[in-house]
């Protein structure tokens, strides 16, 4: 240890130096407090033995000046004094002294005190060095985070051109946002919207944002269905993320007229379709597990379709909104969100966000807060450059027997074939909706004889699909004919589906009366999207006309 002895008595200095050097310490001596203060940085002692009474500057004056120069690391000051009154000893401690030893010196006591304060000094030095390393590491991490944040923001914001019909808010709990909000126009004038919530928050949660955005924008540009987008994202995230991480998401497609919506719903809290007064018309309940959990062969890409009015709004949000807590650990909850949305003067996204912050008070934000409100209006997106269409006619016919109907869903294959026509791929989502609705109606009502009216009960959907699975498993007869053709003269795709049963004209006839029910809406969506739809007299065949060059009906 480097020990500085400050004493105006040469005998004391000599004695202390002799005793300390026997303990292998390096000793430096000065004769007054002024010299000690001036030479402190040069000597850089580990311990100071400081006399009280000295000329020029005594120990009481020197102690606080010494402490002031070495505030980062503990430097013990041990007063050496012949004073024995309590007031003087107390003052030694008050001015910055850490201990004292009385004259004449006891070698054993002196050695013990030196060892004790040496340990404390060593701990202080270690702590100081660790703090410097931590501070340097923190600065490096902060700098790296700023760089990554800049890249993230530029990569995501570059594409996030949100139209006026969407109001949204993203508020991260830390520097990086574990929630993601993406919007992209479809090739035929509609809008794709994705709201996602990765496990946790911060950089670890945000790591999937870039690959998700890349795939989303690429597939949206191709006009793929929201189910296909979800499937591709799931495959990528299952490979990319560790086992404990996933991404809950809602992926929506609003058509150009703002009158129909397709949705893949996986893991987020229920979304809501609201009327112009903010009342709930439909709950958008999660239908699937979050992205990144299931293997490709386990993943379900089924989507829901529903009609909307141009005065309707769709509200989606992450769990950070409803799980925001107050000082009593009460959650904000869905009820408060819906109550705000039903108040015309408080139905803006910022009103909800402000209400959440007011509810939480001084409680630190624990999770990312994200929500979006989509007005179901015409998208008013600018038309793209005119596209070229195939000049070669095409047609194909497929006949499926009852065994093939049991074990196959041919819609994706049919859509793939049709989309191979030049100019058709951008219409993939609309073609998929039309074909899947027509095929399922023919199969469910024409061949399986299912009754859609049971969907209107509380458990109706589950009962309906249980009945469907049982009917398919026991199916012993029935055929379905599918025919598609493309006319280059008019850029029309015409396809028909005919079943061997009584058809689904009954559902068609009832469509006008089904606006208040949970069934029969698919035919309305088809009529909204297709150029025209006709049925044969028997009612077991539907003909659908779709113009690839008629963007206004997209």
UniProtKB/TrEMBL annotation:
- InterPro entries, alphabetized: Bact_Sigma-Reg, CheY-like_superfamily, HATPase_C_sf, PPM-type-like_dom_sf, PPM-type_phosphatase-like_dom, Sig_transdc_resp-reg_receiver
Which keywords does this Swiss-Prot/TrEMBL entry list? Hydrolase, Kinase, Phosphoprotein, Transferase
PROSITE patterns assigned to the protein according to its UniProt record, in alphabetical order = RESPONSE_REGULATORY
Q: Name one GO biological process term.
A: phosphorelay signal transduction system
Q: Which residues form the Response regulatory domain?
A: 2-118
UniProt-listed Pfam families: Response_reg, SpoIIE
GO molecular function annotations of the record? kinase activity; phosphatase activity
Residues where 4-aspartylphosphate is found? 51
Question: What PANTHER family does UniProt report for this protein, alphabetically?
Answer: STAGE II SPORULATION PROTEIN E, STAGE II SPORULATION PROTEIN E-RELATED
What protein name is recorded for this chain? Answer: Histidine kinase-like ATPase domain-containing protein
High-level lineage: Bacteria, Pseudomonadati, Pseudomonadota, Gammaproteobacteria, Alteromonadales
């Amino acid at each position: 240890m480097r020990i500085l002895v400050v004493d105006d008595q040469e005998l004391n200095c000599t004695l202390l130096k002799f005793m300390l050097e026997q303990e292998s310490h390096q000793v430096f001596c000065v004769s007054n407090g002024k010299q000690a203060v001036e030479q402190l940085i040069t000597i850089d002692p580990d311990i100071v033995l400081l006399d009280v009474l000295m000329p020029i500057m005594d120990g009481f004056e020197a102690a606080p000046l010494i402490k002031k120069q070495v505030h980062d690391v503990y430097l013990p000051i041990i007063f050496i004094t012949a004073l024995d009154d309590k007031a003087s000893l107390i003052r030694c401690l008050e001015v910055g002294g850490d201990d004292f030893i009385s004259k004449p010196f006891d070698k054993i006591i002196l050695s013990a005190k030196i060892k004790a304060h040496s340990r404390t000094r060593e701990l202080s030095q270690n702590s100081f060095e660790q703090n410097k390393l931590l501070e340097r590491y923190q600065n490096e991490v902060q700098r790296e985070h700023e760089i990554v944040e800049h890249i993230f923001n530029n990569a995501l914001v570059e594409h996030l051109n949100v139209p006026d019909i969407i109001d949204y808010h993203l508020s991260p709990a830390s520097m990086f946002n574990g929630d993601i909000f993406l919007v992209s126009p479809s090739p035929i004038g509609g809008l794709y919207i994705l709201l996602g919530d990765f496990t946790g928050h911060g950089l670890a949660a945000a790591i999937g944002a870039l690959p998700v955005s890349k795939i989303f924008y690429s597939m949206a540009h191709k006009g793929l269905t929201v189910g296909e987008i979800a499937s591709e994202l799931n495959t990528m995230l299952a490979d990319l993320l560790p086992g404990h991480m996933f991404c809950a998401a809602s992926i929506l497609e609003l058509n150009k007229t703002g009158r129909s919506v397709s949705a893949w719903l996986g893991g987020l809290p229920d979304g809501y379709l609201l009327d112009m007064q903010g009342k709930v018309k439909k709950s958008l309940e999660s239908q699937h597990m979050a992205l990144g959990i299931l293997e490709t062969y386990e993943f379900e890409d089924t989507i829901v379709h529903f009609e909307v009015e141009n005065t309707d709004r769709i509200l989606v949000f992450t769990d950070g909104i409803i799980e925001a807590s107050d000082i009593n650990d009460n959650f904000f909850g869905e009820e408060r969100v819906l109550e705000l949305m039903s108040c015309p003067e408080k139905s803006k996204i910022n009103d909800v966000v402000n209400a959440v912050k007011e509810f939480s008070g001084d409680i630190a934000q624990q999770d990312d807060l994200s929500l979006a409100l989509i007005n179901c209006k015409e998208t008013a997106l600018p038309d793209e450059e005119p596209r070229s269409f195939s000049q070669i006619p095409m047609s194909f016919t497929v006949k499926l027997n009852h065994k093939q109907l049991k074990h196959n869903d041919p819609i994706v294959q049919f859509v793939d074939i049709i989309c191979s026509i030049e100019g058709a791929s951008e219409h993939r989502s609309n073609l998929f909706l039309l074909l899947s609705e027509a095929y399922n109606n023919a199969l469910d009502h024409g061949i399986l004889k299912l009754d859609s009216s049971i969907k209107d009960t509380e458990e109706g959907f589950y009962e309906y699909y249980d009945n469907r699975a049982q009917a398919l498993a026991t199916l012993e007869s029935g055929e379905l004919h599918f025919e598609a053709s493309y006319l280059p003269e008019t850029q029309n795709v015409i396809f028909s589906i005919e079943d061997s049963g009584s058809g689904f004209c009954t559902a068609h006839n009832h469509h006008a009366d089904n606006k208040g029910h949970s069934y029969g809406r698919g035919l309305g969506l088809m009529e909204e999207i297709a150029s025209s739809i006709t049925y044969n007299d028997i009612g077991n065949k539907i003909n659908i006309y779709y113009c690839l060059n008629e963007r206004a009906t997209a």
